[in-house]
Amino acid sequence: MPDSLAAILARFPARRLLVIGDLMLDEFIWGTVSRISPEAPVPVVNVTGESYYPGGAANVARNVREFTPHTALMGLAGADPDGCRLLDLLRASGIDSAGVQQAEGVRTTVKTRIIARNQQVVRVDRERKAGLDEVQRARVMELVEQAIPRADAVVVADYGKGFFSQALADHIGAVSRRHGVLLAVDPHPHTSLVWPGATAVKPNRTEAFLAAGMGPSATSGDGSAPPHSDPVLLEVGDRLLRQWDCGLLLLTLGEQGMLLFEKDAPPYHAPARAKDVFDVSGAGDTAISVLALALAAGAAPRQAVDLANCASGIAVGKLGTATVSLAELEAAATAL
Predict the structure, then answer these.
(1) Hey, which of 79, 180, 185, 303 has its CA 20 to 30 A from 128?
(2) 3-state secondary structure of 305
(3) Helix 3-10 vs helix 326-333: angle between axes, to the nearest 10 degrees?
(4) Are 11 and 297 in contact (CB under 8 A)?
């Protein structure tokens, strides 16, 4: 492993990161399948266990916490049993949840995945989207003012559940710029929010095409062109880099890896590094976490992308919304 990457990874534990976004609870129901239901052509799952993990922006914080103890989270959860379970999980993980508000009348979003034979049978979402009320919004604005100056980087995880508004996005951007704090954004295609002054924005392929006003199925030729020479992808990247006016734009492309755009530099393609793909749940959370940490630790953009790509390759080889440890990333980075 090059000394520069070793030095970057060695600085991860001292970085202070603040994650802001839509909070969820991930529920996994594990079981076995031995027959098809006589009532409908669906498998009958015999439940053998249940697991719960922080989800959404809380999963981003969980990923960050694998690399640094200085991890704080800001968001809104319900005062319901699912919200209480989520807060308990955050505290048990050592994540600073002082910025998480719990509110009566708010339903905590729960994503339930039923897994059998190491495959997801179905996902059930329980949610009720709602924006912040005036009191909650004022408190978030206040917490942003207090927390960002203490951070080396801010990660925004927008899942389109109603936490963010353009006013809040503008406020986060303004406070980050004022204090010289790195701002990395994982956007949602249906919120149409602009993140002024963002250091890096990381959409996946579908999000990028939608944000650029192009159909997500748009391709060039037979789709066999390498991403860094695919004219359609290049057009999407160039358009979003100008539209969002961000320092870095990173497109995550699944089995095609990642494609980085930055001003005054040619696109950079990092090929996918996954050896086995068991579950893509949460891989984007891993990518934005490591990207922000690497940039905050002094990595050059291409180095940060290589590390984020490497971490995502590890994450998809695990079942469930898995995290990646510093030791795992150090070992995998020796091949970079």
Answers:
(1) 185
(2) helix
(3) 170
(4) yes
173 touches 194 (CB < 8 A):
no
CATH code, domain carrying 140: 3.40.1190.20
Cα–Cα distance between 33 and 43 in angstroms, integer? 6
Alpha-carbon span 217 to 215, nearest angstrom = 5
Q: Which residues contact residue 146 at a Cβ distance below 8 angstroms, ignoring those fewer than 6 apart?
A: none
Considering 22, 80, 82, 285, which one is annotated as catalytic? 285
pTM of the model: 0.93
Query: Is 222 exposed, middle or buried (CB count within 10 Å of its CB: 0-12, 13-18, 19+)?
Result: exposed
CA angle, 280 then 154 then 233, to 5°? 50
Residue 144 CB contacts under 8 Å (≥ 6 apart), including other chains: 20, 74, 168, 171, 172, 175
Query: What range does the domain containing 268 cover?
Result: 3-333
Which neighbouring-strand residues pair with 169?
A: none
Average pLDDT, the chain: 91
Q: 321 pLDDT band (50/70/90 cuts)?
A: confident
> Number of structural domains, the chain?
1
Q: Phi then psi for 31, rounded to 5 degrees?
A: -165, -175
Q: Which amino acid is at 172?
A: I
For the chain, count helices (H), then strands (E): 10, 13
Please indicate whether residue 26 is annotated as part of the active site: no
Summarize pLDDT for 277-309 with one digit per residue, the tens: 555 666 899 999 999 999 999 999 999 999 999
Distance CA 24, CA 76 (A): 9
Please count the residues of the chain. 336
